[in-house]
Amino acid sequence: MPAPRRHRPRPSTASGLFQVLSWPRPGGVIVSLAGAALVFSAALNFAPVKADPWTTFFEEWTTTNAASASVQPPATPTAGSGAPAPATASASPAQPDATPTAAAATSAQPVAGAGADSAIQGLAAAGTTGVGDPALLDIGNAASPLVLVNKQRPLVPADFAPSDLVTPAVQSGSAEPMLLRAEAAAELERMFTDAAAEGVSISLKSSYRSYDTQFSVYNGYVATKGVAAADTTSARPGYSEHQSGLAVDIGDANAGTACDFNSCFADTAAAQWVAEHGADYGYIVRYQPGQEPMTGYLPEPWHLRFVGPAVAKEMAVRGYHSYEEFLDISGAPDY
Ligand SMILES: [Zn+2]
């Protein structure tokens, strides 16, 4: 057991573990047991669909979002637009009210909810998940950067709202107010800045969405496309990563808006840059091609999820394409 020390993960941690840990990736992709523990999600009282006369999602999005801005705008933006960006985000020094940094390095307990032999447990055993508070080493904890959210895993409680939302100081490509959890925001600022230095102009299109906002978004889809089609593109309220305050949708300011929220976004410089470098900032492309049986969503090269640099880099190094597989959790193709 390592002596308590300030968390300063070495860049080589991921690759070192890669060599040490046995390779066999968690295979069994779609394990049939959706799990009795997950059945509760079906029992959740899902509100009936409202028949809003929406035409298109994006047409209404701004209106909806503005109307539902019940979320308190942050009193203070993240520490300076310059984004001092600590060398390692996992130490999360910008976190105002969360875990003491000192504890961050030393929690070497298993990640609750993840498979016993899953890749993330290798990080946990080494105390290098980047998550210090033991209570947050739990993929079922909505307040954890490790939280798993999918069609079988709603946030608990369903109307969860993060307590440390801030406005990231980045280029916005939308009129909607932008909010993210503090650590995710700080890393996003660093990522956008570094991308810009290489001529890649990423813009932020969407970020935190409250339960109420997601309710409107999802039902807007249902009203125009029906439930089945809506479920392939929009999460039901309580089931959206955006509600965790850890997910963003991005655009490419140099490429115009034609490919926003569209499969052709994958061809933009922004999409390719984040696919290659996002892990350095703790972001993964959450819904990748061919992963629908695991993630439940068609590919979304614009949707990034913050899991912290340690986890994101480990996933990249070991070649995982879904967070579910990294956690050795059954796929969630449907509700
Ligand atoms: Zn998204």
Write structural notes for this entry.
- Residues 77-106 have a biased composition (Low complexity).
- It comes from Arthrobacter stackebrandtii.
- This is D-alanyl-D-alanine carboxypeptidase.
- Residues 68-106 are annotated as: Disordered.
- The strands form two sheets. This protein has a four-stranded antiparallel sheet with strand order 3-4-6-5.
- The chain is globular and about 45 Å long.
- It has helices at 13-20, 36-43, 57-67, 101-104, 119-126, 182-197, 211-225, 227-233, 269-277, 292-295, 309-318, 323-327; strands spanning 165-166, 180-181, 202-206, 247-252, 283-287, 300-306.
- The longest helix is centred in the middle third of the chain and has 16 residues, at 182-197.
- It has twelve helices and six strands.
- With 335 residues, it is an alpha+beta fold.
- Helix 1 crosses helix 11 (309-318), helix 3 (57-67) packs antiparallel against helix 7 and helix 7 (211-225) packs across helix 8.
- It has a domain at 110-335: Muramoyl-pentapeptide Carboxypeptidase, domain 2 (2-Layer Sandwich), CATH 3.30.1380.10.
- The protein is 31% helix and 8% strand.
- The protein binds zinc ion.
- Zinc ion binds at residues 206, 242, 247, 249, 303.
Summarize this structure briefly.
Residues 77-106 have a biased composition (Low complexity). Keywords: Carboxypeptidase, Hydrolase, Protease. By secondary structure, the chain is α+β, with helices and mostly antiparallel strands.
